[in-house]
Each structure stands twice: as structure tokens, then as C-alpha cells.
């Protein structure tokens, strides 16, 4: 009851529960008094009518009721049992104006100094000994002194009974209140509005007349509904010549709050005729009136407002004031009312009393209503609202406001309608907004490119000549996408257009940097540092101005994009000599060092940045995470993320890096842990977070889980699904031998309007190439040739290949030597070409491989020079093709070219000849030679060159490269087959056996856990996890059986066997614990060399894996290939 009563009174300006600094009564005493005070039901009728100042039509009835006395005694002492003094003063102060003749007004009573249950009684208080008598109340000055002396008495003292008219305040009292009023006005604290009003009401009539303008000005700025009746009272005393902006708007607002709409409209009408009021003031008042009219369920008040339309038109243009009507825009359901407004117009037009002026007023109302409704409407309501009026200004306002608020979802569709309206002429600002809407689409698409071209055409259509800013933005767009032809065309137009412009010199030190930055950028994006360096030199030599740090950073990025490590480091050193590097300079070079895994160099750059006062940013910290993860320091990488989060750097990109590297090592447990940590630290997930999760599932062969996550995301909008997510899931399906589902995923993309990109088309071509993974029924539908033909045609469509085109005959491209850095080039195009080349190399189809090489050179190298170097993965396919053709000389020459270039291009910046422990090769490229090495191993095995095979492994490792698990296992297997038993057992014991987990059947017999942990098995599938395969152990077991048989007749063989048994204990233990399972692999390897004493029936842990297939598929789902 107490809270409901307070809530009822307080919005009307009556502070029921006065604030206090100390609790006067304990909770126990209050509750006891509450139940025992004996108060009757509280009557609020008279109190409510007193508070609603200005809404009472007649006070005679209430005066008569006052003369009869209150109906219930408890009503006169509202809430007295809780705050006795405040409640008595409250009723005396608030209700006395309506009841001037009451004789039972309570005398002033000070707040008690102690708590007593008697204080909660609703009966009038008795006179206490020593308290002031009612005939001699405490003076106002004494009350003010009490207020200043004890803060707890402030509200109690000033909330006493106001002086009677027959007892005017003394001059001392008035002076005290005037001083207090001046102090409050000087401080301007709106929280003191109630206190100010009390001081004001305590003044005599003359002093009130002097100060009421100041009080009105103060209250008009509080924006409190509870002050409405005070403002209304003061505004009525104000002469029209004293009206100003705040007073006029506050007066109308007060009357609206008090529901005196006719009075508010009357004030507005007088203001229209008062020439001294400016239009801004009148428009703000009109805003309040219109908002009130549209909140009303009836239209009467709106009609009354527009009766003043002729006078309003004389003062302002309605098209120019709409943006200032902020209160109207905040009306609930304004969009729905705007959509229904045409029905009201039609009704009014059928009314014979509707005049031409009335029709103009209705049309002006509709325009205003539509433009204000667009501020807060739903996306689905935007175009219907705009089509109501087809107001070009409404289109302009919406597009610009949508850009400012980031609500560009329908801006493109709105612009398509706007540009076709008769007489439309989109402004510069609108063209820039729509350009942003196209550029910031979630994924590049033909719609984006067509939209940008449309905007450029519209510059010429509507404005003849594009602005300088338009040239710069379009140059930047095409430069960021590497479109050299378009950039140079626009740049030439730009220079010709602004070369002689008197307002700007595009070649001076200030503007020249921006003039050439787009040319630098387009070459940087295309990884052409030589061209970028030439432009950079021309800026200094031909045009005689010094490049800015922005130009330096673009040049540095050109070398980084081209994987020119030495060039990037040299450029950075030159940058430091010419100017002071910024965070982008450090971040760009750190990204290159981190991606290569050069931890020492990356940390050194970070320390240099911090020493020079450059704070670490997202790019720099992400580079450290790259470097740590490339060196298998995952705990340190996670610490970087955790420390950054603790310092308030809530950046998802760093955590996504951590997820990416854990996905590469197939550690789903760590991925789950990192995701939980992100949630705990309020790091938001984004589409790239789920992209890394899908990648981890794909590499762990969890294709069904990946499909489920994708389906849930599409259905429940968990994250924005992009073509990249589909591409990763398709890669997972290829790994698990389910290529048929890829075509269904393409259909799902079409259903959800997700664009099918080149990467998705390539996955489709890979699916066609997986003929051997199809079911017998599907294989019978089309021949192998038809499936592979479909794969090739689908791939060629990506790069615009046409049958019969001989790219070698193109003479428009000059033959130029390829830089050695081309060897380490990566990207989608390299991955796609190398995958298709490997497919046809396995089929020994040299014709198609040569066609693919020529197509790649034409598209990406701009040359028909067949002697130029190709990317590493493509050279691996060339090596395999040479092996299939038994052209060993070609294999050896290609390997030598690959190996020599790899040694120089993969060199680590950390390497120092004086520090032998430092690695020669950057960690990113430690396993770069694994595939090519496998081809060389097979070639040397076919030649029977055991010493050459061992020398090859030794040479590769001495240069700093590493050999992966597949290479080591094959190395051991071929050594066994070439009778190099000691070397084979030694390599297996030293390199592979430390990570061997035992036989499945052996663990079962020993009452051990049969199945290995899932995470262990997943990590074991990684090529970098060194462990022996079943095939390797079978080959070694075969050798061991052979040695046992021959040791009976040969002392040399017996010595070799003894050396093996004593020196390679783990391998021998593995062989002796082997249990036969009678698999085809065993039959193939052991043949007639069975030994029941050594090999028993059972089940092996692993079956032989297809090495060639997995070598292709392991990289099939990797990001940034």
C-alpha cells in the first residue's frame, strides 16, 4: 500500500517520501508501529485534485468539501505514521491553498531527536516540554540556520507550514530565502528544483514578482514532468514580451503534461503571431503538439493544430523543419500510423468542408509523418513508407541516417527506387553512402561490383563530373582488389581533372602522398614490389616530394605480400632512417615474421616498438601468437591472449588465431577449452570463430558434426554463414569419402541465397575427381572419364578457359624471369592449380598437366616462359609426373631447382652462423619439402640407391628442413626392402618409437584400456606427429624373421641380429608383442615367412593407410593454403 501510494503521488510533483541521510526508526519499530497505528483507509481524492493543478474545471465543489471537513481523518495525515513531521507539513503545504479557511492546521513541530512508538500515532501530537508553542513558531531564519548547521534537518525545516497571508514573512526571512534562491540558481543543480520552489513560495508577493522569471527559466530547463503545474502557474504570470525559447516551449510542454491541450494550442497560436519568437522555438513547440496529437486515439486535436496551417506556412518551409521534430519520431507505433494515414486523407477528401488549404495541410502532415516514421521503423516498413509520398527528401534523409546508424540493410534497394524517381538527383552524400553500402557487403559478389559501377555511372549522370573524394574512394576500392587496369584508367582521369585545379595541388608534399598511394596499393595487393618500388622512387626523383609514412607502409606491405623477406627487412630499415615507424610499420613486418614462425625476430620487433613508445595493437599481438604457435608454444600463445583480455583488449582475432593453430594440430579438446575461456572473458564469437571450429572438425574427420553445426547456423542464425563455411565442410566430406553430398550443399547454398564462389566451384570439381570414392551404383552411371572430364571443365570455368585456346601463343605478354620468391607463393589459386595437377599427375596425364601449367603462367605470371619457377606445391606435381613417366633426369633437375630456391627463400631471420642452435629455416617451412622428398625417395628406391636415399635425408635435415612421419615411415620401409637392416631399425627406434602407443590386442589382453583417448588418436593422424605405422612394423618384423632364419647359418647375420636386439629394444618388443590378424596386408608382406612363435592371432591397432590419398587430402581444408 505504501509503495502504491507513493508511486501515485510522486509523478505529480508531490514528494511523499522526503529524502533523509539517516534512518529515523529501526525496521522492527516501524513494522510494529505500522500494524498498531490504527490509521483508517487513506483517501487520495482531494490530494490528487490538488496536485493536478490546472486540470480542475471548478474548485467550488472542493471548497465546499473543505468546509465540511475531510471525510476520513487519516486522509489529512497521509503517511504520517512513517514521517510524521514531513507528512504534516506536506498536507499543510500542498492542501492548504484549496482549504484556506481550515482551522485545524497543525502547528509546526520539529523532528524528534529519539525514536518512540508514540511518533507513529496518527493523532495530533502533544506539546512537549521545551518545544516552541504554536503561538510562537520557530522563525524562518532559524529554520534556515538549522538547515545549514545540520544536514539532516534540511528537508524537515523547509517543509514546514507556509506563512499565512495574514502573517507575511519578515524582511529577514525574505532575505534569507532570496540568498538561498540565488545560490541555487548560481549552481544550476536541477536536483534542487523542489528546494528552490519552497524558497520561492516562502517569499512575499513583491519578492515573488521579482524572482518568478528566474524561477521559471530554471524550472523550464529541468525537463521534469512533476514541475509542470509550477511552470504553468509561473508562465501565466509572464507577459508575452518576456517569452523566450525555454519559457515558451516549457509553457506548452507543461500544459500538455497537465492535459490542457486547448490551453497549449492557444499559447502556440499567440506565439505564431508574436514576431519576436524565432522559428526554432515555434518548431520545437509544434513538435510537442504533434507528438501529443499522434499519441491520442482521436484526431480532434490534430485537426485543431492544422487549422493554424496558413499561419505556420508564413513562418517556415515544412520541408526544412522535419528533421527537428524529434518528439514526433519517438511516438510509439508512429510507422503503423503513417501507413494508415492515407485512409484518413481519403476520408477527409470526401468531406465537403475540406478546402485546398486543408488538403495542403494533410499532405504536409503525411510528408512529416513518413519522414519521422523512417527514423525508428522496421526494415520491412521502409519501402512502403517511402512509396506513400515518393518524397525525394525522405529518400535522402533515410539513406543518410541509415549510413550514420549502420542500418544499411535496405539502403541499396531504397536507392534503386530513388534514382528512378522523376526529377530525382541524388546528392554527393547519398552517393557516398550507397557506395559504402555496396563495399561493406559481407562477401564479394557480382552484385557488389555491379553496384560500384552503377554508382560511378550515376556520378556522371547526375553531376557530370565526379568529386575529388569520389575519385579517391573508387581508386581505393579497385586498388584493394588488385584491378590494375581500372586503377590506372581512373588515376589518369583524376590527374587530368585536378591537375590545374586552383583549390588543390595534387603533387605537393601534402596531397602528393594520397595521389600516388592508390598506385602503390594496387601493386602491393598483386604482390609486385618491384613495380611499387619504381613508383616510390619516381615520387622522390620526378615529383620532388618526400613520401609519407603511409606510402612507406604500403611499400613495406608490397614486399610482405610477395613473401620477399629480405626485401621487407631492407625496406623497414630504410623506413626507420627516413622517418619514425608507426604501429602499422611494426605490425606489418611482425605479421610476416610471425607467420613464418621467426619468434626471436618478432619479439625483437615488439620490444623495439614498445621502446619507441608504440603501444601494442591487435596486429602486433596476433603476430606474436603466430610465432609462438609455429614453434609449438601454445601455452605462451594463450598467455598473450589472456593478458590482452585482462587489459581490456577484447579482440576476437587473436583468439581465432589460437583456435586455427589448434585446429591444424587436430586438438578438439583445446579448441573447446579456448571457446569456454572466450565466453568467460566476454570475448565475442564471430563468423571466423566458427570457421576455425569447422576447420578443426574437418581435419578430425568429423564431417557429420560439421554438417550439423552448419545446419543449425542456417536455421537459428547463430552466426552469419558465408561460402567459406560451406567450403570447409565440403573439404571435410572429401576427407571422409562423401563427395556426393557436395552437390547437395551447393543446392543448399542456392536455397539460402549464399553466393557460390570460385572456392566452392573448385570443391565441386574435386568431388567430380573423386570417382573412386563413389558407390558402385554411382560409378555405373558415368564412366571414370566422364567424371574426370566434369572435374576439369568445372575447374576451367573458374579461370575463363575456352577450348582450343593456346595460351603459349599469346604474344601480348612479355617473357620475364620469375623471382625466386615465386616458389613460396601461396593462396587459393596456387592450391587449386596444384591439386588439379596432382590429380592428373597420378593418372599420368602429362597433356592436362602441361595445359594447367600454361594456364597458370598466363593468368598469374603474365609470361609464356616455360623455364620460370613455379610454386612449390605445383613443382611437387611436376615431380610426381616425371616419376610416373620414369623421366628420372627431369625429376632430379626439378628437385635441385626446388631445393636450392627453398634454402634461400625459407631462411629464417633468427639464423646466425655464430649461434649454431638457431634454426636455419623458418618454422613455417620446416616441412615444406615433405611431398617432393617423398617422390625423390620413391625414385631412389626404384634405382636401388640406398646410400643416395640416406644421403638425401641427411642433406635435407642439415639445411634445417624437417622430415614428417610419412617420409620417415617410408624411409624405414624401403631401407628394409633394400636389406639395410641396421639403418632401418636404428631410424625407427630413434625417431618413430618414442610416440608408439602399443598394439590394441596386446592392451586388451593385459587388462589395459583397449581404446586410446580420442584426442591422442586425432593428433596421431597429423603428419608432424612422428610414430610408426603398422606397415612399418610389419616390414621390420619381416626383416627380424628373415634375420632369425639366416642367423643359424651365418655368423655375420647372427652378429647383426644380436646388435639389433641389444640396441633397439622398443622395436624388438613391438615385434615380439605382435599378434596376427590374418589381414591382406600381412599376407602381402610376410608371405611364407610366418612364425607361430612370434606372431599370434589377434587384431592389430591399425590398418594400412593410403599415403598418396591422404597426402593430397590433408591440405584440402586448410585456410590460406
Notes on the structure:
The chain is mostly helical. It has 58 helices and two strands. 62% of the residues lie in helices and 0% in strands. A two-stranded parallel ribbon has the order 1-2.
Question: What is this structure's SSE topology?
Answer:
Layout (H helix, E strand, L loop, with lengths): L1 H8 L17 H10 L8 H7 L8 H9 L15 H12 L44 H10 L4 H5 L12 H17 L5 H9 L3 H15 L8 H9 L8 H13 L3 H13 L5 H17 L4 H7 L2 H7 L10 H4 L4 H16 L6 H18 L5 H11 L2 H14 L5 H8 L9 H12 L6 H18 L4 H13 L3 H15 L13 H14 L3 H13 L7 H13 L3 H14 L4 H14 L2 H13 L6 H13 L3 H13 L5 H13 L3 H13 L6 H13 L3 H14 L6 H13 L4 H12 L6 H12 L6 H6 L2 H15 L29 H15 L3 H16 L10 H13 L3 H18 L24 H14 L2 H13 L6 H13 L3 H12 L7 H6 L8 H7 L9 H17 L4 H13 L1 H8 L2 E2 L3 H7 L9 E2 L9 H7 L8
Parallel strand pairs: 1-2
What labels would you give this structure?
single chain, 1121 residues, mainly alpha, two-stranded parallel sheet, 2 strands, 62% helix, 0% strand
